[in-house]
User: Which sequence fits this backbone?
C-alpha cells in the first residue's frame, strides 16, 4: 500500500532514494493512513517499521509483532475506508447528475 500510493504522489514530493519511513511519512501526510489516535506516536511508528526491516534482531521483532500487526491492520482499514468513501461519493455524484 505504501509503495503503491507513494508512486502516485507528484514528482515534486517524491525522492528517488527515499527510505521506507520517508515514503510512509509522505503517504501519511497525503492520506492520513495512521489512525489519528496514534498521532503522537507517528515518528516512532515510522522508525519501528524501518528498523524492523533493517536493524532489529529476531527476538525484538517477535516482541514488536503484535503492536505492529495491529497498526498495519488499522492503517489498512483507514486506507480501505477512505477508498470506499471516495467511491460512494462518486456514485452519489453520478446519481445526482442524472436527475
Assistant:
Amino acid at each position: 500500500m505504501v509503495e503503491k500510493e507513494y508512486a502516485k504522489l507528484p514528482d515534486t514530493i517524491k525522492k528517488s532514494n527515499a527510505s521506507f519511513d520517508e515514503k510512509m511519512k509522505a503517504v501519511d501526510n497525503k492520506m492520513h493512513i495512521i489512525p489519528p489516535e496514534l498521532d503522537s506516536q507517528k515518528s516512532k511508528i515510522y522508525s519501528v517499521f524501518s528498523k524492523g526491516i533493517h536493524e532489529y534482531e529476531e527476538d525484538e521483532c517477535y516482541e514488536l509483532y503484535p503492536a505492529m500487526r495491529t497498526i498495519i491492520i488499522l492503517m489498512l482499514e483507514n486506507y480501505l475506508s477512505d477508498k470506499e468513501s471516495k467511491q460512494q461519493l462518486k456514485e452519489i455524484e453520478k446519481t445526482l447528475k442524472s436527475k
